[in-house]
Amino acid sequence: MPSYEFKCLDCKRKFEIFMNYADYGEKEVHCKHCNSANIQRKIGRIRIAKSDDSRMESLAGGFDDPAALAGLEDDPQALGRMMRKMSREMGEELGPEFDEVVDRLEKGQSPEEIESAIPDLGGEPDPLGGGGLGGFDDDF
């Protein structure tokens, strides 16, 4: 069954609806978040079926050399590019928060600056003690 992506023009949130081809255009669609009928269809990303192995090979392609990963901690733009590449390879929409973080990283903003600018990013505290965007806290 095909999925159709929409954006609510009232609450500005994106959502996805699964329906038969025959139902499209016949069935009334409402926002899953606020129940508004003031919505707009988005043209979704074309998804190409890949095996998990080929997806992982493609993802790891630029990171065969451990030195390629070494500078990510100090280079927000490279980290943002890597995160964007990973999201494309996964073929899934990761949400507006992810897009905002990646956009900020690609503009050169550090993870610490992003975390302080968006304090509720990440939602619930990590039960394993992770430090938000920066990963685990260094002070054990």
Written description of the protein model:
With 140 residues, the protein is an alpha+beta fold. It folds into two domains: 3-42, Single Sheet (Rubrerythrin, domain 2); 52-124, no CATH class. The chain has helices at residues 52-60, 66-70, 76-90, 96-106, 111-117, and strands at residues 3-8, 14-18, 39-42. A three-stranded antiparallel sheet has the order 2-1-3, with no helix packed on it. Helix 1 packs antiparallel against helix 3 and helix 3 (76-90) runs antiparallel to helix 4 (96-106).
Name its key features:
5 helices; disordered C terminus; about 10% strand; flat; 3 strands; Rubrerythrin, domain 2; three-stranded antiparallel beta sheet; 2 domains; about 35% helix; alpha+beta; about 140 residues
